[in-house]
Amino acid sequence: MEKLALEAARLLFSEGGAGWIVAALLGLACLHLHRENLRALEARVSETGATATALERASQTNAAVAAALESRTRVLEDLSRLAAETARGVDRGDERAREKFDEILRLLAELRHPHR
Known about the structure:
By secondary structure, the protein is mainly α. The protein has one domain (2-112). Helices cover 89% and strands 0% of the residues. Helix 2 packs antiparallel against helix 3 (97-112). The termini are far apart.
């Protein structure tokens, strides 16, 4: 390693000092590459932030969809319960069967038009 350093120093001083010019140009090139590398890293950080924001929004959307599906599931469970009760009522000739059917129709209307 010392031999390489000595040889590099000898080359710097040889040829009338032309080695210093080469060293200065290499230093400027390294500085330029360092600055470009920093710009690229800043761009990556910015992209990562944008990706994180997009993922957060997608997560919020998924949570809203899950809540809506849970609400629909509850309505369907209520409809299933009412249909079973109505079927039992019809088997017994229950007068409340008509009321149950009306309730089922109301819940079905809510499913078709949930924003009313």
